[in-house]
Amino acid sequence: MPVEQSVHRAGRIKVVRESERESLWFLGDNVQLIVDSADTEGRLVMAVHHAAASSQPPLHEHDNEDEIFFILQGEIKFWSVDTVVNAGVGDCVLLPKDVPHTFQVSPNSEAKWLVILTPGGFDRFFRAVGTPAGYPGPQQGWSMDDETAKRLETAAEECGIRLLGPPGTLPEPTA
């Protein structure tokens, strides 16, 4: 019997140990890819997302992926065109494709969540925008620079993500 490895494949089973996850700084947050598109024949991507207090992505919309958040730590406020909701530990939020949305981590503490995106492909976006993380947790002192903004813009266009406004911009309610 083969010796178990940190990433182990036996037939269709894959085990990913926490210490062996690919860890990226993505817009200052730490994203650890657990299952990527290659593992699921393009069906889904799963990652742990660890964000600093007040972290907020740009207002955006996915052409392809539904995005599911399961909150592990902290509180996050979500906005879409017709809903504003506060979510905390144990809550699950589904943001369907084609719905403009953003979210913001509470200013009082960091947050962690499991994110599942289906179908797969969003791992390509994480990798195109992100850089290898140098330590666990959010990137200390991060702020958007020109190089990151260019990577974000290019990757969004290539991956079917429409950037609708900078962080702080909220979706317009539908009539």
Key structural traits:
175 residues; mainly beta; Jelly Rolls; 7-stranded antiparallel sheet; 3-stranded antiparallel sheet; 14 strands; 13% helix; 41% strand; globular; disordered N terminus
How does this model look, in words?
The structure is a single chain. With 175 residues, this protein is mainly beta. The protein has a single domain, classed as Jelly Rolls (Sandwich), CATH 2.60.120. The chain contains two helices and 14 strands. Strands 10-7-12-5-4-3-13 form a seven-stranded antiparallel beta sheet, with helices on one face. Helix 1 packs antiparallel against helix 2 (146-159). It is globular, with a radius of gyration of 16 Å.
Task: Please outline what is shown here.
The chain is built from 2 helices and 14 strands.
Describe the protein's topology.
Layout: E1 7-10, E2 13-16, E3 22-26, E4 29-35, E5 45-51, E6 59-62, E7 66-73, E8 76-80, E9 84-87, E10 92-95, E11 101-105, E12 111-118, H1 122-129, E13 131-132, H2 146-159, E14 161-165
Antiparallel strand pairs: 1-2, 3-4, 3-13, 4-5, 5-12, 6-14, 7-10, 7-12, 8-9, 8-11
Quaternary class: single chain
CATH architecture descriptor text: Sandwich
Give the distance, in angstroms, between the N- and C-terminal Cα atoms. Answer: 62 Å
Low-confidence stretches: 1-6
The succession of helices and strands, N to C, reads: EEEEEEEEEEEEHEHE
**How would you describe the shape?**
globular
Strand coverage percent? 35-45%
